[in-house]
């Protein structure tokens, strides 16, 4: 695929073929449901536990461990984290929760902020120590939020070089990237990878009912990921709670909408067992939205979404 074909795919319609909406669900209602993580072939639960919230000071260490283990006991097998979350507390707490055989039950992901090989390797090693593991299943370059970051990551001596080495030595299995600032930066990262004959295993980005109307990742980036069979990690399904404050949609609707998109899974923050149970219930009872349901939901949110008020992270 050349650059023109790549960019053509990027501006595809947001109305994907029906076969792609809620694709690859492999369970019956009442059980946890799983999808394939892009070309990796890994099976992941359609909802994952976000790492940030388990490390905040308002959540006790004991509660964070109960959240993580309850999630795993109920079939959630994807754990999100980052080197930078809560000064390392999120990884430390997750590492403690994954003792006693729980590590073997999950697909473990963390992120790093280093853009050169040296800093990326240092951060990865710190994460492995905090998580008390010898490898993570997925490492992601965290928060690609500037135009020049892809060039830094792909440069000689860049972070990608360091993570490819880490993959060779068994410290990581798969490589991806994240961001919530702009679809333009995601497309630039993907195109830079294409020019360097590299295919990411995953990409993480905001996918929600407001994004559909404003500088949309779903419209601009998602078609490219589907075309290249790259695992799609949806985040900010509720826009860090901002979307719920609009009072236009419920939490269950937010999750179900994001799961209906051709996502591999939807990562959601859980700062209590009640919030976790909400996510579990939606995942277990999930059925893709019909065209009529989706159209009605988007019509309801369109008047509120035009200026990005409920997606402030796109403006930071």
Structural class by SSE content: alpha/beta
Provide the gyration radius in Å.
Answer: 18 Å
Q: Report the uncertain regions.
A: 10-22
Query: Count of DSSP E strands?
Result: 10
Coarse morphology: globular
**Main pleated-sheet profile:** 8 strands, parallel
Mean pLDDT: 92
Calculate the terminal CA-CA distance, rounded to whole Å.
33 Å
Please indicate the percent range of residues in DSSP E strands (runs of 2 or more).
5-15%
Q: State the helicity in percent bands.
A: 25-40%
Listing every helix as H and every strand as E from the N terminus to the C terminus, the arrangement reads HEEEHEHEHEHHEHEHHEHHEHH
Main sheet: strand order: 3-10-9-8-7-6-5-4
Helix tally?
13
Protein model, in words:
The structure is a single chain. This protein has helices at 3-10, 61-73, 89-97, 117-131, 149-154, 159-168, 183-195, 217-220, 222-227, 242-245, 251-260, 273-284, 291-305; strands at 34-36, 43-45, 47-49, 78-79, 107-112, 136-141, 172-178, 202-206, 231-235, 265-268. The strands form two sheets. The protein has an eight-stranded parallel sheet. It has a two-stranded antiparallel ribbon with strand order 1-2. It is an alpha/beta fold and 316 residues long. It has 13 helices and ten strands. The chain is globular, with a radius of gyration of 18 Å. The longest helix has 15 residues, at 117-131.
Write a brief structural summary:
By secondary structure, this protein is of the alpha/beta class. The protein contains 13 helices and ten strands. A hairpin with a 6-residue loop joins strand 1 and strand 2.
């Amino acid at each position: 695929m050349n650059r023109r074909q790549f960019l053509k795919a990027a501006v595809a319609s947001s109305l994907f073929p029906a076969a792609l909406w809620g694709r690859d669900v492999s369970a019956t209602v009442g059980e946890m449901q799983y999808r394939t993580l892009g070309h990796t072939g890994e099976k992941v639960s359609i909802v994952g536990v976000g790492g940030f919230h388990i490390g905040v000071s308002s959540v006790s260490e004991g509660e964070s461990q109960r959240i993580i283990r309850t999630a795993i006991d109920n079939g959630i097998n994807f754990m999100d984290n980052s080197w930078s979350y809560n000064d390392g507390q999120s990884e430390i707490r997750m590492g403690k929760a994954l003792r006693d055989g729980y590590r073997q039950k999950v697909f473990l992901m963390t992120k790093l902020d280093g853009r050169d090989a040296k800093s990326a390797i240092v951060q990865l090693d710190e994460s492995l120590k905090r998580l008390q593991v010898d490898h993570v299943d997925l490492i992601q370059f965290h928060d690609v939020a500037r135009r020049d970051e892809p060039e830094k990551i792909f440069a000689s001596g860049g972070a990608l070089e360091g993570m490819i080495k880490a993959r060779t030595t068994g410290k990581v299995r798969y490589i991806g990237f994240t961001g919530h600032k702009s679809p333009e930066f995601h497309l630039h990262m993907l195109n830079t990878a294409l020019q360097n004959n590299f295919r990411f295993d995953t990409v993480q980005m905001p996918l929600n009912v407001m994004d559909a109307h404003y500088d949309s990742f779903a419209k601009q980036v998602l078609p490219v990921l589907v075309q290249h069979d790259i695992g799609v990690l949806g985040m900010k399904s509720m826009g860090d709670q901002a979307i719920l404050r609009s009072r236009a949609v419920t939490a269950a609707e937010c999750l179900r909408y994001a799961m209906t998109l051709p996502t591999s899974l939807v990562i959601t923050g859980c700062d209590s067992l009640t919030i976790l149970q909400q996510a579990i219930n939606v995942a277990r009872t999930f059925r893709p939205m019909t065209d009529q349901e989706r159209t009605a939901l988007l019509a309801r949110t369109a008047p509120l979404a035009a200026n990005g008020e409920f997606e402030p992270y796109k403006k930071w």
